[in-house]
Specification:
mainly alpha
Length: about 110
């Protein structure tokens, strides 16, 4: 990614909302049956005992010592690889308002 021009990176803790949880558990059972319980247990440790939390701010990164460790480890890797680890800045300079005569496209 760096060689292709990426200047920053981000991470999100695995999210298993709704039916995705069942699919992931099936995938683990088929591809890593010896690690399934451990993977799910680690996720639960970072989500107050649940595999998924919908609370904003926690659902992306989890909470607790394991989640904090992942975040710190990611920040170290970003610095080592030369990625910007400062706050995300949305670049809006390339946005152009559509011409006044441009019609809204239908979603149907």
């Amino acid at each position: 990614a760096r060689a292709a021009g990426a200047t920053r990176a981000g991470w999100i803790l695995l999210r298993l909302a709704m039916e995705v949880r069942g699919l992931f558990e099936e995938w683990l059972a088929a591809n890593a049956p010896d690690r399934k319980a451990r993977v799910l247990s680690r996720l639960q440790a970072m989500r107050s005992g649940a595999v998924y939390q919908s609370d904003f701010g926690i659902r992306m990164t989890g909470s607790g010592p394991d989640a904090e460790f992942l975040g710190k480890r990611f920040a170290v890797a970003c610095r080592r690889l030369g990625y910007d680890d400062g706050p995300l800045r949305h670049e809006t300079g390339l946005f152009r308002r559509p011409a006044a005569d441009t019609r809204q496209l239908s979603l149907l």
